């Protein structure tokens, strides 16, 4: 029978659509051939070192620093300059590399660059929200397939992020604990949805996974922003991400995925209530009008089965 499930932290609802149920292996696909490197703007010239990680301004930025105010303000609608930061972090000079296949020290170096850029963007007084994300593979929204990560610092904090902060604060006020810490304790004990765990992080399929392979990676130490991660934790973070993406590759072919770091925005003092995390979504299947109309997601894979499937795959 179909089942509604709710994410305790975000309050998002999903229907586990058992009448349309699919086995996790139904989403396995043949690995895509490597993308051609011809005309790739991120391929380096001569002299690049194998473990180079390059930070570039985005050539076609979503937001820009010093965006001018709009001249024609509409009387009713609200408009603000598109102020912000948009950077590209080129993970490797190797066009065919991926996070899963980088040598471990290179992945750790990359995670260090993420932290450095994240901290610096957060310190920018024009930036209220910093989003670090990766689009991997055709179908993920990536316009360039050379492995890269992006960072956007936005001067606007949208309502769904505010809502998320409010929900976390509400839980903290009533339960006296961080909702994410509670979820983490439960998942570590329950193990039914656990995919990967190490000294400082855990990765699990969400109880209310919004799509077939929806994984959260949470730091075990309560910290509100990614910028607070220490060196030892960063080692663990790079390692768990590599193992997780290798499992995804092994289980599903080189399926496209997105990951997003969710961190507390600067203007909110909810450091006890909010806990940063990385959300990974494998891009299999898509939304429908029902989701658009209701805000309720439908997921055709039972999250416990998705977790077992990823757990059984080679890391
Ligand atoms: Zn390239
Ligand atoms: Zn916490």
List the helices and strands and how they pair.
Layout: E1 3-6, E2 13-16, E3 54-57, E4 84-90, H1 104-123, E5 129-136, E6 148-154, H2 159-175, H3 179-190, E7 194-197, E8 201-205, E9 214-219, H4 231-252, E10 257-262, E11 277-282, H5 289-294, E12 297-299, H6 303-312
Parallel strand pairs: 2-12
Antiparallel strand pairs: 1-2, 3-4, 4-6, 5-6, 5-10, 7-8, 8-9, 9-11, 10-11
Helix pairs in contact: 1-4, 4-6
Number of helices: 6
Fraction of helical residues: 25-40%
The low-pLDDT segments are: none
Strand order of the largest sheet: 3-4-6-5-10-11-9-8-7
Total number of beta strands? 12
Class, according to the CATH hierarchy? Alpha Beta
Strand content: 15-25%
Q: Name the CATH superfamily assignment.
A: HIT-like
Order of helices and strands: EEEEHEEHHEEEHEEHEH
Query: Rg to the nearest angstrom?
Result: 20 Å
The CATH architecture can be named as: 2-Layer Sandwich
Cα separation of the termini: 33 Å
Description:
With 315 residues, this protein is of the alpha+beta class. The chain has a single domain, classed as HIT-like (HIT family, subunit A, 2-Layer Sandwich), CATH 3.30.428. The strands form 2 sheets. It has a 9-stranded antiparallel sheet with strand order 3-4-6-5-10-11-9-8-7, with helices on both faces. A 3-stranded mixed sheet has the order 1-2-12. The longest helix is centred in the last third of the chain and has 22 residues. One zinc ion binds next to loops.
């Amino acid at each position: 029978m179909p089942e509604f499930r709710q994410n305790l932290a975000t309050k998002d609802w999903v229907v586990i659509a058992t009448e349309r149920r699919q086995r996790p292996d139904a989403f396995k696909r043949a690995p895509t051939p490597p993308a051609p490197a011809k005309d790739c703007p991120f391929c380096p010239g001569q002299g690049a070192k194998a473990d180079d990680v390059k930070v570039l301004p985005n050539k076609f930025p979503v937001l820009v620093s010093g965006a001018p105010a709009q001249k024609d303000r509409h009387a009713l609608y609200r408009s603000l300059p598109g102020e912000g930061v948009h950077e590209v972090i080129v993970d490797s000079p190797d066009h065919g590399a991926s996070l899963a296949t980088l040598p471990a020290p290179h992945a750790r170096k990359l995670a260090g660059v993420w932290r450095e850029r994240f901290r610096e963007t957060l310190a920018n007084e024009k930036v209220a929200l910093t989003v670090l994300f990766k689009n991997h593979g055709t179908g993920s929204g990536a316009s360039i397939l050379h492995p890269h990560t992006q960072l956007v610092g936005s001067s606007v904090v949208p309502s769904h992020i505010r809502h998320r902060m409010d929900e976390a604060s509400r839980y903290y006020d009533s339960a006296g604990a961080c909702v994410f810490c509670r979820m983490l304790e439960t998942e570590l004990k329950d193990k039914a949805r656990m995919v990967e765990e190490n000294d400082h992080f855990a990765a699990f399929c969400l109880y209310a996974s919004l799509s077939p392979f929806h994984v959260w990676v949470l730091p075990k130490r309560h910290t509100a922003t990614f910028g607070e991660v220490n060196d030892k934790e960063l080692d663990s973070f790079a390692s768990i991400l590599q193992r997780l993406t290798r499992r995804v590759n092994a289980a599903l072919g080189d399926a496209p995925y997105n990951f997003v770091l969710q961190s507390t925005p600067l203007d909110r003092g909810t450091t006890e209530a909010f806990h940063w995390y990385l959300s990974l979504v494998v891009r299999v299947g898509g939304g429908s009008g029902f989701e658009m109309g209701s805000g309720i997601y439908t997921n055709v894979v039972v999250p416990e089965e998705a977790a077992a499937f990823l757990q059984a795959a080679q890391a």
